[in-house]
Amino acid sequence: MNVCVPCWKFRMLLPLLVVAISCAFVNCRDCSTLTPANSQQTANLYNYESNGATCNGVSSGVSFGDDLRQAVVERHNLWRANLANGCSGLPGGQTAPKAKNMNALQYNCSLEVIAQKWANNCQFAHSSQSDRGGAGENLYALYSSLPTWKADFFANAADSWWNELAQYGGVTQTDTTLTLAGFNSGIGHWSQMAWAKTTSVGCGFKKCAPSGTNSYTMWYVVCNYCPAGNYLNEQTYEIGEPCKLDSDCSAGQCVTATGLCSTSGSNATISKRSAKKFRQWRH
Question: Which PANTHER family does its entry note (predicted)?
Answer without folding.
Answer: CYSTEINE-RICH SECRETORY PROTEIN-RELATED
